[in-house]
Amino acid sequence: MTTANSPTDDDLLLAVRYVLNECDAAELAAFETRLGDDPAAQAALVEAVQIVALLQATPTCDELAPRLVRSVPARRSWQVASLVAATLLFAVVVVWQSVPSTQFDHTVVMTSESPALAQAWTALDPQPAMSEDADEALTADDSADEVASDVPDWLLAAVMAEAEQGESINHDMDLEEETQL
Amino acid sequence: MSGDSSNHSGPVGNGPPEDASRLSDRERVALWHSRQVQWLRVFVFGILRNNELVDDVLQTVFRKALEQGASVDPQSVRAWLTRVAHNEALLLKRKQGVDSRAMTKIGAGFSESDSVSLPIDDIMRRETAEQVRAAVHLLPPDQRIVVERRIHGEQTFAEIATELRVPIGTVLTRMRLALGKLRAALGDEGVG
C-alpha cells in the first residue's frame, strides 16, 4: 500500500475534493499542475476516482433511509400517517386475539344482551366458546396435574405465596379483633 | 489501490521493464497499452469525467507512444505516458470547455450516466461491493456521516458542516480520516 509515490491522506483528500469539484480555482490550478509531474498527486487522483466510484456504486443501508424519507412528498404525509394508524390498529387486534383465552370470560359475552357481538367474539376466538355443561364436565375431569401443566410454576408459587400472606394477614386481623373485643 | 507510478510488476498495467530493442514499435506499444491503459483511463477520467473524451485522449497518447516511444526510458514508461495523458487531457479540457457543471456530474454517480460513467467493472469486482459496505460500516459514526452525506447525499462539505454545526475543517478532517481507513480496508482493489 505504501510506496515512495504513495499519496498521503492529505493528497487523497485534495484529490477527492478535486474529483467532487469542491476545489476553488487556485487549488484546482495548483493540483492540475502537480498532476503533470508529481507521482503522488497522480496516484492520489487515481485513488480518489476509485474510492468515489466504489462508494457511489455501493449504497449503504444508512444512506437509503434518509433518501426514502426525502422521497415521500409532503402532501402524502397524511397517507403515511393513516397507514401507520391502520398498522397499529391491526397490531392491536392481533395482540388482542393472541391473548390467552383464560384471561377473558367468554361466558359473560355469550350471555350478554348482544348476540351479534357474542357471535363476533366467538368468530374471533380460534377456540369455540364452551357451554356451561362443557365447563362443568371439564371442571369435573380436571386433575391437579393438568392444572399444573397449564399454569406456570412461577405463577403457582406467586399465588400460593400471596394466599399464605393473605391468610397470615387475616389471622393477624382476627387476633386484633379478638383483642379489641 | 496503491498509486505506484513506477514500472515494476503489479496487478494491472504494471510489469517488468522489457527489452525494447527486441520489440517492434507496435509490439512495444501493445505491451504498454496492456499494462498501463487501465491506470491511464482512471487518471484521465479523474480530469475529464467523460468517457468519450477519455477515449480520445488515450488514442492520442498511444499514437504518440508509437511515434516517440523508442526514446522512452523503459523504467519510466508509466511516468511518460501519464505526463502525455495529463497534457492531452488538460488541452482537451480547455478546448472542449469542460466546465465545472459537467465535472459536478461525477457526484451524481459514475454508473448512472453514460456520458460521465467510468466502467465500474474495471475497478470493482463483484465481491468488492460487500467489502466496501463493510468498510463504510466500520467507520466511526462521525466519519461515516460525512462520507455518506457527501457521496450519497450529494451535499457539499460546507453544507455538511452547516448541518452538523461544526467547522468545515472538522468535516474535512473526518473525511480525510475516513479516506485513510477506506483505502487501507480496500487494499489491493483498483488499477494499481
**Radius of gyration computed on alpha carbons of chain A:** 37 Å
Radius of gyration of chain B: 19 Å
Distance between the termini of chain A: 96 Å
What percent of the residues of chain B sit in helical stretches (DSSP H or I)? 55-70%
Number of helices of chain A: 10
Distance N to C terminus of chain B: 5 Å
What's a concise summary of this model?
By secondary structure, chain A is mostly helical. Chain A has helices spanning 9-19, 25-37, 39-57, 61-71, 77-98, 106-110, 115-124, 132-141, 144-150, 153-180. Chain A is rod-shaped and about 75 Å long.
List the helices and strands and how they pair.
The complex is a heterodimer of chains A (181) and B (192).
Chain A: H1 9-19, H2 25-37, H3 39-57, H4 61-71, H5 77-98, H6 106-110, H7 115-124, H8 132-141, H9 144-150, H10 153-180
Chain B: H1 25-48, H2 51-68, H3 77-96, H4 100-104, H5 120-123, H6 128-137, H7 141-151, H8 157-164, H9 168-186
Helix pairs in contact in B: 1-2, 1-3, 2-3, 6-9, 7-9, 8-9
How would you characterize the overall build of this protein?
The complex is a heterodimer of chains A (181) and B (192). Chain A is built from 10 helices and no strands. In chain A, 75% of the residues lie in helices and 0% in strands. In chain A, helix 1 (9-19) packs across helix 3 and helix 2 (25-37) crosses helix 3 (39-57). Chain A is mainly α. Chain B has 9 helices and no strands. Chain B is elongated. Chain B starts with 24 loop residues before the first helix and ends in a 6-residue tail after the last helix. Classes of the chains: A mainly alpha (181), B mainly alpha (192). Chains A and B meet through helix 1, helix 2, helix 3 and helix 4 of A and helix 1, helix 3, helix 4, helix 6 and helix 7 of B.
